[in-house]
Amino acid sequence: MSISITDVVEALCFILPAYCANATPVLLGGGSPIDGGRIFWDGKPLLGSSKTIRGFFAGLAVGTLVGIVQKTPLLGFSLSLGALIGDLVHSFFKRRLGMPPGSPFPVADQLDFVIGALFFSLLISQPNLLTFVIVLVVTPPIHLLTNLLAYLFNFKKTPW
């Protein structure tokens, strides 16, 4: 099977609302935590202070706006919601493992939001297998690069 640059561009266009939704809380987040500071039954924070209401809804709005620009508003919303929920689920499990917000968890840090986005996209539009594979392969290096840039420009406290 041959993969063309067109295949890669189409896959990136498909997942773009999720990428934007995932990045937005870094830029526009802050404020009250989604979990309200609640502690889970294991004595650890439910999600942690870095997952905020403002970040979640800003990410959802930006990702949905990207979908509107792409003329796929429902898919944009679905991908964005899935990306943000995927990230929250990942944070929940990191807290269960005793990992503080911002601590590295290789591979899971790079793919949590994409897996959530792809799962939620199935409600609207099923990506073909090639799109799915391309997104899973290109996302980790893109995620690492964008996080490094966010760190270098002082948007993040850690480079991962």
Write up this protein.
- The protein is mainly α and 160 residues long.
- It has one domain.
- It has helices at residues 5-28, 53-69, 73-96, 108-121, 129-152.
- The model has no long low-confidence stretch (mean pLDDT 95).
Entry keywords:
globular, mainly alpha, 0% strand, 160 residues
How would you summarize this macromolecular structure in one to three sentences?
The longest helix has 24 residues. The mean pLDDT is 95. The protein has 160 residues and is an all-alpha fold.
Helix count, per DSSP? 5
Content-based structural category = mainly alpha
Q: Write down the Rg.
A: 16 Å
Q: Number of folding domains?
A: 1
Percentage beta strand = under 5%
What is the N-to-C succession of helices and strands? HHHHH
Morphology:
globular
The helix fraction, in percent, is 55-70%
Spatial separation of the terminal alpha carbons: 33 Å
Compute the number of strand runs. 0
Mean pLDDT: 95
Largest sheet: none
Provide the low-confidence segments as ranges.
none
